[in-house]
Amino acid sequence: MKRLIPILPCCLLLGACAERPAPVATGASPPARWQAPVMASDDAALQRDWWRRFGSADLDGLIERARAGNHDVAVALARARQARATLTVAGAPLLPEVRAGVEASREGLLSGQGNRDLDASEDDPRIDSFLTDFNVRYDVDLWGGLEAARDSALQGWHASRFERAAVELSVLAEVANRYLDVRALDEQARIAALNLDNAREVLALVETRHEAGAATPLEVAQQRSLVARQQRLLPEARQRAAEARIALATLLGEPVQALRLAPGPFTDLRWPTANAGVPSELLARRPDIAAAEARLASAEADVRVARAALLPSLTLGANLGSGGERASQLLRSPFYTLTAGLAAPIFDNGRLSAERDRVQARQEEVLEDYRQAIVAAFADVEAALVAIDGLDRQREGQARELESAHEAFRLAGERYRAGAETLLTLLESQRTLYEAQTEQVRLHLARAQASVALYKALGGGWRAEPPPA
Predict the structure, then answer these.
(1) 400 to each of 426, 446, 468, how far by Cα in Å?
(2) Mean pLDDT across the stretch 422-434?
(3) For residues 460 and 398, what is the distance between their CA atoms, to the nearest angstrom?
């Protein structure tokens, strides 16, 4: 022991001089501005309850139910708790391990004279022994490997918290999109029912004209074909609306029977315009980027752990105990033991070197994931901005198209009744009107979902919060 003690300061000095690997360059540089046109917004900053800007009480309630009942969110929360426990486990070796124990034993000779390996003998056939001990063991973190393991677990915990936020953001955006789908498909079913009524009214007119000899059997057959088509489209629209409700209920973690939505015109639903800010702010807004950055920091710490494992390790120990042949003598013979052990890997068939190479390759993989997350985040915002700009332009033209289609159908009906127009013109105006009505719903849905996409791309008002104690 006396020979070993002088080398301890040397080992500690070497540990203090050990260099950490240089931080990995991420190569992430945001653009100066967005390429796509940015809409003016009355939001100074994104709010975390962004869905309330849509002005739908139904959507507000669905979001709260999804937060409480969605299984993906629950899984992400459980993973965050696992990571928190892993952090505690990883940090434990940085402090000494302390144990205490009490032991009682009895050795008895059943027959014979005993032997030299036994304390019991023919003269003393029963031996009692009592022992208590208190021991401390400490692994000296010479090369920073234990601290690096704790750092890796800490960053893993942060990553799991950020991933939980990213999962929740994705789920809430998906709930909003599915809700908009339900509203749009309900509107399409309503339009299909109105169009069926219109087609039947025209059919009655054609049949009346046919009975009067003013319409041909071909015209009657053509209009009946249109009525049959509308009869087919109506249950199809209702089926798609029912399927959308099932998808929405699944996101809530509820049976579809529990889903109740207030009826209302889909085109009355408004959408907000999010404040896109500047690209440099995006890296702090997105929980998935924060998670990827934390995973990268965890991988860097894993490299330090693997490098430290290639170097010698030092373990210190101390034991204080006492014992006797009777319980009353338990504390009469105290003793102590001090130990120090220095161990270095000599030959492991390349295992430790291979582990170092593995974690270095893993670090490169996580770095590329981080870079890809940044590129994808900028692309998400650009795509949402482009969609909003393009859809707003399309809706301006489509509004005029729908107004003209209504007027054309009205005039064609009047002229057909007066005998000044053929049924072919009336049929064509009907189809044009139906298509314009369907397109109006499609563009309204796409525009509302583009707003959802922009809020999601901008992080939904998320900000990194201090970790819980």
Answers:
(1) 20, 18, 55
(2) 86
(3) 30
Higher pLDDT, 87 or 278: 87
- 242 HSE (CA, 13 A, CB side): 7
Domains of the chain by residue range: 30-94+143-311+352-457
In angstroms, rounded to a whole number, what is the distance separating the alpha carbons of residues 153 and 305? 11
- Here the tokens at position 85 are 């426990």
Q: What are phi and psi of 424, to 5 degrees?
A: -60, -40
Q: What is the pLDDT of residues 212-253, one digit of tens each?
A: 888 889 989 988 998 999 899 899 999 999 999 999 999 999
List the end-to-end C-alpha distance of the chain, in Å, as a whole number. Answer: 42
The neighbour count for residue 25, using CB atoms within 10 Å, is 7
How is 264-333 classified by DSSP, letter by letter? Answer: --GGG----------HHHHTTT-HHHHHHHHHHHHHHHHHHHHHHTTS-EEEEEEEEEEEESSGGGTTSS
Third-level CATH fold of 30-94+143-311+352-457: Outer membrane efflux proteins (OEP) (1.20.1600)
Give the long-range contacts of residues 77-84, CB within 8 A, separation 24 or more: 77/164, 79/160, 79/163, 79/164, 80/157, 80/160, 80/161, 80/163, 80/164, 82/160, 83/153, 83/156, 83/157, 83/159, 83/160, 83/161, 84/157
Q: Give per-residue pLDDT as tens, 295-343.
A: 999 999 999 999 999 999 999 999 999 987 777 777 788 889 999 999 9
- C-beta of residue 289 within 8 angstroms of C-beta of residue 463: no
